[in-house]
Amino acid sequence: MNELTQTEVTMEYIQKVASILSNKKYNIQTMGCQLNENDSEKLSGMAEKMGYKYTDNIEEADLVIFNTCCIRENAENKLFGNVGELKKIKKERDMIIAVGGCMSQQKHIVEKLRQSYPYVDIIFGTHTLHKLPQDIYEVLEKRKKVTDVLDIDGEIYEGLPIKRNSNNSANVTIMYGCNNFCSYCIVPYVRGRERSRKFEDILNEVKDLAKEGYKEITLLGQNVNSYGNDLNDEKSTFANLLYELNKIDGIEIIKFISPHPKDFKDEVIKAIKECEKVHRVIHLPLQSGSDNILKAMNRHYTKQAFIELAEKIRKEIPNVAFTTDIIVGFPGETDEDFQDTLDVVERVEFEQVFMFIYSRRKGTKADTMENQVDEKIKGERLEILKQKVTEIIDKKNKEYVGTIQKILVEGVSKNNENMLTGRTNTNKVINFEGDKELIGKIIDIKIISDHLWYLKGEIM
Ligand code: 5AD
Ligand code: SF4
User: Fold this and answer.
1) Which of 115, 306, 326, 459 has the largest count of CB atoms under 10 Å?
2) Residue 225 to residue 236: CA distance in whole angstroms
């Protein structure tokens, strides 16, 4: 008999658990980035196939899954707080608690969980997510605690069950891991080296999504423009992927995060320009505008190179919008270095900036640097940066008034249930009045006024 694939083994354990459980509920808490959200969609898919029904109320759940993030210290603290709150409930009734994802890849975290949170049943890592059904089976059958974390890079498993968060818009992970080792970042240690999914597997997933009625996809990876570097075939490049996905009927909007500025090839700029479904927003993580800091961060570009890249892209794709990530208070950052960051923000005119205070991460090079910046100065710089970003967003938003935008109606606005919401192809939120029947449809909207965090529009 042929050996079973790992996905088949997972499906067998799903059946085994389903046969011993009935009427059970699960809750899942996701921290961190969209890659984690996509992993949580797979964890939810497996939970539902095992027979668990989703509940919002963690107190009535029989299975609680924490899918964790360790990119900054506050994400870690949040997890310990949330797990701590379950201690009382777990004393009163049976409940399986599983902690997985990026935090579980760190030895000191596993030790802390085992010592101080002994009521956690399962600890799984980023490379063993597909084994959740097996881990649950062991807990149910053998009444034992499971720690299932792999140090080596996991393989890519296709065909796992998935329960998506939206019916219109889908996350599609195209590659896992990162090879860049930016000196502040824990990701390469907890997600392993870059591994790309096969070209055909991605195309097939998106074709299936189109058949199911999905109109928008977001391609995910820590460094999407390195897609295919590990596959050793000429076809499998990020640019080719955009061209092929652009041809799929039914898919109307293609987004992607995140590219690395050092790897942004001309062929990708050309592909974005030529593929009309690809969103006109490029997330280009700057991190810092200072050459000294960029060098210490191991980013492999200079301030000038970054600005030139943005100018080149803007010249080729005139209506493009840029968004970015910036870290303030990296070790050794002087006022002058910080001014360089503000200067790039002003010159590139980012339309959205994710701003972070540098957070020391055990095991990274930057954590061992001696010239750590005072917390008070970090906080002050964050405030100055916020101010600058707000001014630019305010200015850019005014340019949208009077324009007509083709958008996917995403749903009801979060802040006003009488309004619908969607996004420009540069990712700006638009709120407008309209019938809920329009949700999931592509329509034209005229922008009538600008507000700091959204644009107001009306249906054409
Ligand atoms: N401290 C602060 N921000 C960080 N990021 C990554 N590591 C750290 C850290 N140690 C930010 C970077 C990255 C984003 C996802 O998180 O800006 O692009
Ligand atoms: Fe972290 Fe740098 Fe890799 Fe992004 S590219 S995940 S910041 S190491």
Assistant:
1) 306
2) 11
- β-bridge partners, 404: 446
378 lines ligand 1 (CB under 6 A): no
Which atom number of ligand 2 is nearest to the Cα of residue 191? 6
Alpha-carbon distance 387 to 452, whole Å? 12
Read off the tokens for 391.
């001014």
Contacts of 130 (CB under 8 A, 6+ apart): 6, 7, 10, 42, 46, 157, 160
- d(CA 266, CA 116) in angstroms, rounded, equals 51
- Residues framing ligand 2 (Cβ under 6 A): 178, 180-182, 185, 187-188, 222-223, 260
Please state, in angstroms and as integers, the Cα–Cα distance from residue 393 to each residue in 323, 447, 449, following that order: 11, 16, 14
The strand ranges marked E within 270-386 are 281-283, 321-328, 352-357
Run of H or E including 78: helix 73-92
* Cα–Cα distances in angstroms (integers) from residue 52 to residues 28, 90, 93, 324, in the given order: 11, 18, 17, 39
Model pTM score: 0.93
Asked if 91 and 26 touch (Cβ cutoff 8 Å), the reply is: no
- Please give the structure tokens belonging to residue 374: 């005072």
Ligand 2 centre and the CA of 188: distance in Å?
7
User: Which pair of tokens denotes residue 37?
Assistant: 């959200």
183 Cα to the center of ligand 2, angstroms: 9
Query: pLDDT tens for residues 22-53?
Result: 999 999 999 999 999 999 999 999 999 999 99
DSSP letter, residue 275: -
At 141-196, the pLDDT tens digits run 988 899 999 887 778 889 999 999 999 999 999 999 999 999 999 999 999 999 99
- Ligand 2 atom 1 nearest Cα: 185
CA neighbor of 310 nearest in space, from 275, 355, 345: 345
